[in-house]
Amino acid sequence: xxxxxxxxxxxxxxxxxxxxxxxxxxxxxxxxxxxxxxxxxxxxxxxxxxxxxxxxxxxxxxxxxxxxxxxxxxxxxxxxxxxxxxxxxxxxxxxxxxxxxxxxxxxxxxxxxxxxxxxxxxxxxxxxxxxxxxxxxxxxxxxxxxxxxxxxxxxxxxxxxxxxxxxxxxxxxxxxxxxxxxxxxxxxxxxxxxxxxxxxxxxxxxxxxxx
Length: 211
Known about the structure:
By secondary structure, the protein is mainly alpha-helical.
């Protein structure tokens, strides 16, 4: 017998009281009536009327349970489908953190390329063009620092400034701080950057006689 709020209350009742409950559909819910019938049957009270009502109420209870399960499964399926559709619709972008880290550790030039890829993926042509202008300006500043042979620490400061401009200005202005997106893997761009910077660094050091 399935436990519910009526079981303990009805167990103390007499058979006549339980029969009265079983037949009184105007006052008692189907769950209460079925509980009373189950207790009667457990006491070996099996009249035709009791068996008939018990069969009908059991069938109704099973139907309602089945309908609830189908509805719950449908809700779960719809929620899963909506989640998958939402994920499928989200743009694949290089993360803000990745762009910031690469810009500081390597160069804002590489961060600019990743950010331009993001803008291309989201159809932000104007933003992409502005990043190109920023990149040209950055190259000019770096070349100027190199020609004037200024303190090398200045280049690191310029990198940090460039990184924050890319992420805090361009990203926040055009993509927004709370944009939802799927993160693209960081592995490929990092490997490409290393493949470019390691030989280049070696060539510069070799040319300057440092190694």
